[in-house]
Amino acid sequence: MSEDTPAAVTAAAEETKSAEVKEKGFKAFLKRKNIIFSAKRYFVDAMGAMASGLFASLLIGTIISTLGQQLGVEILVTIGNYAKGVAGPAMAASIAYALQAPPLVLFSKRAVGRAANDLGGAGGPLAVFFIAIIASEIGKAVSKETKVDILVTPLVTIGVGVGLSMLAAPSIGSAASYIGELIMWATELRPLLMGIIVSVVVGMVLTLPISSAAICHAFGLTGLAGGAAVAGCCAQMIGFAVMSYRENKVAGLVSQGLGTSMLQMGNIVKNPWIWVPPTLAGAVTGPLATCVFKMKMNGAAIASGMGTCGLVGQIGVYSGWVKDVAEGSKAAITAMDWIGMMLICFVLPAILSWVFGIILRKLGRIRENDLKLSDM
Is 143 helix (H, G, I), strand (E, B) or coil? Predict the structure, then answer.
């Protein structure tokens, strides 16, 4: 007997209709819960927020404690250590905030961040990133679905987050740490080539709507690789600030040079040629940092991806010098150290980007107002 009987056809149609209804219902549920599976939300919004969380905890804590150590003010060291101690919770809460999680989910993420960061070891930030996203979205899914939401939402969010941390954070952390060590090893082995690669890649990531600071911290990028990363970030920030001075004047100089080169992203989309000068500058200063000046960034790894933003990159390099001297791996902070940092972080990026920019303007690749920031 043929399977294409009227009854079989009707049953198949009913199953298809039921599946479509379920699919529409699931999509409606996700929409109602504001759960959006997209690269932008996770790798732009969440990662950018994670960098803010890192800045408001680990980074500012490092700055305060370093200042305290240099001035001999113990209370500043204590304050800085407290700030550094909440890096995991701060990152997780920042990610939940970026994902627009409801209050109970947001508040519960502190425990998740603590677990993921602690269990992830050196690669804790990367573990926090992935686990916080999953726990946030699951927490959002159950939020306000029961009459005992105040119990269910924190229980599910913390249970899922801490459970995943126990299962996966050590492996994620080990993988991140291994990749970071591999990059640093390769940079020590091939300082010229890796100086170019690390400087250009991390610098471009800084300008993209992605967090270079979070990435550097997640992979624990320090040493010569950290120095190359600092060089690339400075090339982008100082480069764009100087080459766009004719359009944006002092306001643009400060907002890009001490703020972020990400402000130029809209202009880069319109004319990618404007990205060439600071990127070429980074390709020059990166290997100079690794091969000539041996500039190492042995402070907090997050500083490797900050460039001149609030002078955090330079503070990181300096705090690394102080730590190395204290540990005996560096005899003293020399004049050459300071000269190298000034040249790599400020002078060369400004000169090289300006020269490359002039060449491209002469060739007609960069036109008047291509670098103009809309709010300047």
Answer: coil
Tell me: the pLDDT tens digits for 77-99? 999 999 989 999 999 999 999 99
Q: From CA 131, how far away is CA 113, in angstroms rounded?
A: 8
Per-domain residue ranges for the chain?
Answer: 39-175, 190-362
Residues recorded for the chain:
376
Rg (CA), the chain: 24
Which phi-psi region, left, alpha or beta, contains residue 330 (left: φ > 0; alpha: ψ -120 to 50)?
beta
Interval 187-240: pLDDT, tens: 999 999 999 999 999 999 999 877 788 889 888 899 999 999 999 999 999 999
**How large is the greatest C-alpha to C-alpha distance in the chain, in angstroms?**
93
Phi first, then psi: give them for residue 297, nearest 5 degrees.
-110, 95
Q: Could you tell me the end-to-end alpha-carbon distance of the chain, in angstroms, rounded to an integer?
A: 78
Residue labelled with tokens 């730590």: 323
Burial class, 365, CB count within 10 angstroms (exposed 0-12 / middle 13-18 / buried 19+): middle
Structure token pair of residue 13: 């149609």
pTM: 0.77
For 5: left if phi > 0, alpha if psi spans -120 to 50, otherwise beta; the answer is beta
